[in-house]
Amino acid sequence: MYVKLNDAALINEITKKQLQNLFYHDRDSGRTDRFIVEDGELKVHVDYLCPHRTEIETLYIQALETSSNEKEIARIVAKRTGKKVHNIYMYLRNFRFKNAKFAALVIDALKEYISHNNLFYIGKYA
Q: Does 83 fall in a domain?
């Protein structure tokens, strides 16, 4: 969900200039998940620090319904992303994915895990 720049500044208790500078940095680095320009107006994701949080939380809860434990999910995601199992476990416990590319890898890994381990979700993420 995206809100206007003024509203995002008030919600997050940050100056508009800091958000604009972050927008310019994201634009230069190619990151497109935190800000959008709609009708000539800059809009900011409500959770601009971690815009993938809600999607990862939802997928993680669905994955927990199909697995025997949290470490199993962490092992599968770690294998897919190339990170250490403990690091993935802590990421999934805190839902702090600040790196957009890494968050996309985790989302894909969780979707694949769900589609391979639960009959009710087959076809939903495939």
A: yes
Q: Are residues 71 and 33 in the same domain?
A: no
Rounded-to-integer distance, Cα 110 and Cα 30, Å: 24
Q: Are 26 and 34 in contact (CB under 8 A)?
A: yes
- Over residues 42-63, the pLDDT tens digits come to 999 998 888 888 899 999 999 9
C-alpha to C-alpha distance for 112 and 80, rounded to whole angstroms: 10
- Contact indicator for 107, 59 with CB cutoff of 8 Å: yes
| Number of domains observed in the structure of the chain | 2
The C-alpha atoms of residue 56 and residue 104 are separated, in whole angstroms, by 9
pTM score of the predicted model: 0.79
As given in the structure block, the two tokens for residue 13 are 């208790």
Strand order in the sheet with 2-4: 2-4, 41-45, 35-38
